UniProtKB/TrEMBL annotation:
It comes from the Eukaryota. It comes from Hemiprocne comata. One of its GO terms (cellular component) is mitochondrial matrix. Residues 32-290 form the Aspartate/glutamate/uridylate kinase domain. This is Delta-1-pyrroline-5-carboxylate synthase. Keywords: Amino-acid biosynthesis, ATP-binding, Kinase, Mitochondrion, Multifunctional enzyme, NADP, Nucleotide-binding, Oxidoreductase, Proline biosynthesis, Transferase. In the C-terminal section; belongs to the gamma-glutamyl phosphate reductase family. In the N-terminal section; belongs to the glutamate 5-kinase family. Pfam families: AA_kinase, Aldedh. Its EC number is 1.2.1.41, 2.7.2.11. Pathway: Amino-acid biosynthesis; L-proline biosynthesis; L-glutamate 5-semialdehyde from L-glutamate: step 2/2; Amino-acid biosynthesis; L-proline biosynthesis; L-glutamate 5-semialdehyde from L-glutamate: step 1/2. It is found in: Mitochondrion matrix. One of its GO terms (molecular function) is glutamate-5-semialdehyde dehydrogenase activity.
Amino acid sequence: IRCWSNIPFITVPLSRTHGKSFAHRSELKHAKRIVVKLGSAVVTRGDECGLALGRLASIVEQVSMLQNQGREMMIVTSGAVAFGKQRLRHEILLSQSVRQALHSGQSQLKDMAIPVLEARACAAAGQSGLMALYEAMFTQYSICAAQILVTNLDFHDEQKRRNLNGTLHELLRMNIVPIINTNDAVVPPPEPNSDLQGVNVISVKDNDSLAARLAVEMKTDLLIVLSDVEGLFDSPPGSDDAKLIDIFYPGDQQSVTFGTKSRVGMGGMEAKVKAALWALQGGTSVVIANGTHPKISGHVITDIVEGKKVGTFFSEVKPAGPTVEQQGEMARAGGRTLAALQPEQRAEIIYRLADLLTDQREEILLANKKDLEEAENKGRLALPLLKRLSLSTSKLNSLAIGLRQIAASSQDSVGRVIRRTRVAKDLDLEQVTVPIGVLLVIFESRPDCLPQVSALAIASGNGLLLKGGKEAAHSNQILHHLTQEALSIHGVKDAVQLVNTREEVEDLCRLDKLIDLIIPRGSSQLVRNIQKAAKGIPVMGHSEGICHVYVDTDASVEKVTRIIRDSKCEYPAACNALETLLIHRDLLRTPLFDQIIDMLRVEQVKIHAGPKFASYLTFSPSEVKSLRTEYGDLECCIEVVDSVQEAVEHIHKYGSSHTDVIITENEETAEFFLQHVDSACVFWNASTRFSDGYRFGLGAEVGISTSRIHARGPVGIEGLLTTKWLLRGDNHVVSDFSEHGSMKYLHESLPLPQRNTN
């Protein structure tokens, strides 16, 4: 705990030796000394007269938050000219006499022009007001601010430079935020061609160059440059092919076409890039980002410091492989080529992958052994996750069988005609299946997921981005290598990409221009996080697997214990495992009920009593905290219901629409349950564990979906397809079908082509 002005605040441990800039965004959280440069477009209003007070308040709040974490914050700000322009205009209007205004006539008054205001005068009039505003805002967070006005001469004169340096260090030592600006009231014209001559020379001719010079002089860890664009683009923002550059490296300037400068201020993007590269050369990391966007400006600074993918990050370290954006483009292009192959060719790729899983068994198991040893040594994974991480010969054989099943069933998946309509004479319409596009599959501790999902993507002609957990890095690497080897037989190696960069899952979920569907495979927390983080990209999956088994009064004694044991104990960590057991009230204190309890005790299943069940018992197990709980272990809840109707109501209220089961010999009761339970999978006298793509005969699944749009339940090839419409005509125009036109709509259904059942 540190104290300033008697206000305690929490600090984070920050220590770093200045010298080299950060290599990756994820390291920015270690930045201790930070300069935030606020461009004129960020600080001023759209009319360029006055300040954007809401934006400024949000920026001050973020800077205060970081300052109170123990960081040393400095602000290089524009805005004095705009603030002064507002004040001087107001003074000019007030100085005109009322008589002049009345005698000038309404039309002349309307057209009266305010004289052009000289920038230096505006700066002189605005500096005090701008600083007063900053002081008032920082005071709300118990932080003191101090103003420093500089010119280029202050950096070129050695004595003045030492004085400036000493002043800034003393302010930072006292936990004061320096507010720095060029002294525009007296600033001389910039020296031509004097900047970027060497690491110790940069002409302070705008606040971009001032911020860069200051950052290097003060040995800051991070310089954040806020402007009115998202970052650096490879061509002027707004042009058709403009793409935001995530990471910019020295030497990449030739690949960038700069546009015009912003609506206000002295510098443009080219000036910002030059200043950023100069600071980078001096050992300071730089991020250029948008400080005006209403959706992100409230957290843009803190997001950058947290390492989130915001704006353009300047780095001197180029990664060995492609960026995730490049991988997305490669997957898109590869997926389109994959979709254009003949069905037999796609099947051949999957058959080849199945063979490689068995042929290269020893190499796969050796890589998996490394993952298991590292996980056990670090002690980070619980036993259920270690089981998921583990591969075996039998698992690989099962995988190969499933892949061959996918290959055999995928012959007519892509391009299948599902509807044909004769719209009019010689005008035929078809609806055909096509791939969704690029899939992003994020999975934890399950390397066997990689070949399964890859095979489904190949069969459906989709490009694929895979993001596995680092605990399975060695296994994922070799499995992806084998997948690309199989794809290479038809020249579509790039269709499946494994993301190995330091991209956070949240950042991947923002790539809405590259990814068409996200499929999370992992814990309920992972799924919820992805659903929350996804920006404009649909997420297929389920956040919870709260599966119910209802035991009816007409249930078979022989079937009950077998189905319950299999549903709960066969693999309790699975999303399709039993979590809540519903028992008809009439079965309490019967031999069947005793058998159920005895079986659960033998299997060491911890029982939690629901409220109604607890009310029937003198000494009951621990009462359940919530009826909406996914245990994922040898635990379950038991609750009592009075009828099948109440069982259905309970499932709708507390379930997750995943998988629910009834055990009964009464067909009428069973059909009522099957028809009324609104879940993705509803079973009669069968274990919840059958809710699986492989067991359904889909070969494998990319996941189980509980959503009500598109795919639902175990999702195989069909769930990875969408449709498009093909219309074949002969000089048809809509005007021919008007009231007095020569043609009439027929809308006749046509027979579908016969499906390939081989």
